[in-house]
Design brief:
Layout: H1 21-29, H2 33-44, H3 72-90, H4 102-113, H5 122-129, E1 151-155, H6 159-171, E2 174-178, H7 187-190, H8 222-235, E3 242-243, E4 246-254, E5 259-266, E6 271-276, E7 278-281, E8 304-305, E9 320-324, H9 328-337, E10 343-347, E11 354-355, H10 366-374, H11 378-392, H12 413-429, H13 434-440, E12 452-453, H14 457-461, E13 466-469, E14 473-476, E15 480-483, E16 488-490, E17 493-496, E18 510-512, H15 519-523, E19 542-544, H16 558-578, E20 583-586, H17 588-602, H18 631-637, E21 646-649
Parallel strand pairs: 1-2, 1-7, 2-3, 4-18, 7-19, 8-17, 9-10, 9-17, 10-13, 11-12
Antiparallel strand pairs: 4-5, 5-6, 14-15, 15-16, 20-21
């Protein structure tokens, strides 16, 4: 049977290329030359486009290397050849060939990047590009009638919940999706603060079965991301299957009947009960704002709110605004509000490493969008290049070298070069401002915390109406912020950019598994663990998407990791139905061994480097949120479920 559902090869037929010669030439002039060379190779079949003198230089840092490092003369030659071929495509005189096989794909991506991409990336990249289906994410024959007995409750309708809902519908498995918000979108519905956006390139931050070739920015802002997610949910019928403004408060496993019972409450206070064979949690780790307990907070007379609960009734014009924190959220907010507020005071607990990125504020030009939307393979190869550049490539450079003589500033020689690169950017941006330079240079190695993108942060800090205070907030008075050194800073509005409860997975839902054991008591305080981030001993038929140790601290897309976990969960559901299995419960010894490997690997990586606190770690110092694995490792681990790792029960 051919694959069905979201994880089948996407339709490679794009809207017809109808641009006239002038528009086509203009688009090609704005195109990325390494990508145009791959298009030339695909459409002409000519090997010469991957050989000298057409081999691009290496793409460095966070750049796209649009020029390929070619001379002006060579650039014009390549663009001219691309125009000739695309004009023939427009006139239907060129047949679009099938996609390359895995080995050829990797060879082509490697040439375009100017560096060797490991061959093991061939199949996962092909899946991400929609060239091939995700294997075994479909029935192995006609849909079995036993599927009628399977049912699922999905908690959360963010990106993962949308993907899970699409998958379940394709398999014909009865399911209910509940979400505490009034719309799909999850974190992107909740976080609509000024400047909110993604710090992952948006052409890889999209679901593989529904790629977006029409992004308006290389790093999209919240409205565009939310619009994309809502559109995907509508197109796949997910929106109609969600019970909105409904929050699950308790889950109980019925051992006799092998079903989960969920107690939920609507925003209007009504109680609802759901029953399902399996529960799939898609709540993620950044859905619950973390509000610090600071002396005098209740006395402050002005508005005070977390960015995820931004109060748009508050007009910042003419106001003195305090922003507590300098993480990713604050770094987006401050430049966005600086023009409207009278004064912005930024309270910094710890400095952050910030990377220069020419694409961060860049819009996708009309010409580049035309190539993405209408030229075969252009957008697909761009996505594959990003997967290597922004996801797995970096991890090898973040291993702690025990012989490295400068652990106070870096963890190895390459990491030290990263430090010099970032430092030179900071020094250039803050030239003539030694006062700011002394405050913003971190005292820990680069990538010890998730690297942030420079969206005009340093230029904003230079403004006369913006002040950076490198002191902890100790208290609030009725109209001021008081720092640990006793200084008072009168303000009118306080923004608590203080993060989320990222180490509290599936919290505050009360979950009772086999024998009545409670999930959060089994885990302990902020110390979640799960086999592959998905399955937990004592909790049969409970699957976590976005569970512990599944987020990438070294960069990359959370959607990539989520889709691997979703495919794994799908394969387990298929095995349950086709094998007549009533419940699956991961073995405790398997989970313990996996956790030992997780912790041991983290001991070699930068996030356990002494002298740092991050939201990746719990209060005991254990890494809870971040994975120590490359994306390709996790893809491989989740590719073929081993039922010997589970306690398998036939239906009662």
């Amino acid at each position: 049977m051919s694959p069905s559902g979201p994880y089948q090869p996407i339709d490679r037929s794009l809207p017809p290329l109808a641009a006239d010669d002038a528009h086509l030439r203009a688009a090609i002039a704005e195109g990325n030359l390494p990508l145009l060379l791959l298009v030339l190779k695909m459409l002409t079949g000519e090997e010469r486009w991957l050989e000298e003198p057409y081999r691009p230089t290496r793409a460095r840092a966070l750049e796209d290397n649009d020029s390929g490092g070619f001379t002006e003369e060579r650039q014009e030659e390549i663009r001219g050849a691309a125009f000739d071929v695309l004009r023939e495509l427009r006139e239907e005189r060129v047949e679009v060939p099938p996609p390359p096989d895995d080995d050829e794909l990797i060879r082509m991506v490697s040439v375009s990047l100017g560096e060797e991409v490991p061959s093991e990336y061939g199949r996962p990249m092909a899946e991400e590009a929609g060239f091939v289906p995700r294997e075994d994410v479909a029935w192995h024959g006609a849909r079995p009638t036993a599927a009628d007995e399977m049912s699922a409750l999905v908690i959360g309708a963010g990106p993962s919940g949308i993907a899970v809902g699409t998958m379940l519908e394709a398999l014909g498995i009865e399911h209910t999706i509940v979400d505490k918000n009034p719309s799909v979108g999850g974190v992107w519905w909740e976080n609509d603060y000024p400047g909110a956006g993604v710090d992952t390139p948006t052409h890889m931050y999209s679901l593989s079965f529904s790629p977006n070739r029409s992004w308006g920015r290389y790093y999209a802002k919240q409205p565009e991301i939310l619009g994309y997610l809502q559109r995907v949910a509508d197109e796949h019928g997910v929106t109609d299957r969600v019970s909105f403004e409904t929050e699950v408060e308790r889950l109980d496993w019925d051992e006799e009947r092998e079903v989960w019972t969920a107690q939920a409450r609507t925003s209007g206070g009504a109680r609802r009960t759901y029953e399902a064979r399996v529960v799939i949690s898609c709540v993620g780790i950044i859905g619950r704002p973390k509000i610090p307990k600071i002396e005098g907070m209740e006395r402050f007379r002005g508005p005070m709110f977390h960015p995820a609960e931004w109060d748009y009734s508050v007009d910042l014009a003419g106001k003195r605004v305090a922003v507590i924190g300098t993480g990713a959220t604050a770094m987006q907010i401050v430049p966005a509000i600086a023009d409207s507020a009278e004064r912005v005071l930024v309270f910094q607990r710890s400095a952050q490493w910030v990377a220069p990125n020419a694409n961060y504020l860049r819009e996708v030009s009309d010409g580049a969008r035309l190539l993405m939307e209408h030229v075969p393979y252009y957008a697909s190869f761009y996505r594959m290049r990003l997967i290597w550049q922004f996801q797995d490539k970096l991890l090898a450079t973040l291993r702690r070298d025990p012989e490295w003589p400068h652990p106070e500033r870096s963890v190895n020689a390459i990491n030290d070069r990263h430090r010099e690169y970032f430092l030179s950017h900071i020094e250039a941006e803050l030239e003539g401002r030694p006062d700011l330079l002394a405050k913003v240079v971190p005292t820990y190695p680069p990538y010890g915390k998730r690297i942030l993108m420079d969206n005009g942060w340093y230029r904003t800090l230079r403004r006369p109406d913006v002040e950076l205070i490198a002191e902890d907030v100790a208290a609030f008075s009725e109209e001021a912020v008081v720092t640990g050194d006793g200084e008072r800073y009168p303000v009118d509005v306080v923004v608590l950019a203080t993060g989320f409860h990222s180490t509290r997975i599936l919290w505050p839902v009360e979950v009772h598994g086999r024998g009545g054991v409670e999930l959060h008591r089994q885990w302990g305080d902020e110390d979640a663990s799960a086999y592959l981030g998905v399955s937990v001993p004592n909790f049969p038929n409970l699957f976590l998407i976005g569970g512990p140790h599944t987020f990438t601290g070294h960069g990359g897309s959370a959607i990539y990791m989520a889709e691997s976990a979703i495919a794994y969960t799908s394969r387990l559901l298929i095995a349950m139905v086709e094998g007549g299995i009533g419940s699956l419960e991961v073995r405790a010894d398997v989970t313990e061994d996996y956790n030992r490997r997780i912790d041991a690997e983290h001991e070699h990586l930068i996030w356990t480097h002494p002298g740092m606190t991050t939201w990746y770690r719990n209060k005991y110092g254990r890494i809870v949120s971040m994975t120590p694995w490359r994306g390709v490792d996790y893809w491989e681990m989740t590719r073929v479920p081993d039922l010997d790792e589970f306690l398998v029960h036939a239906p009662n």
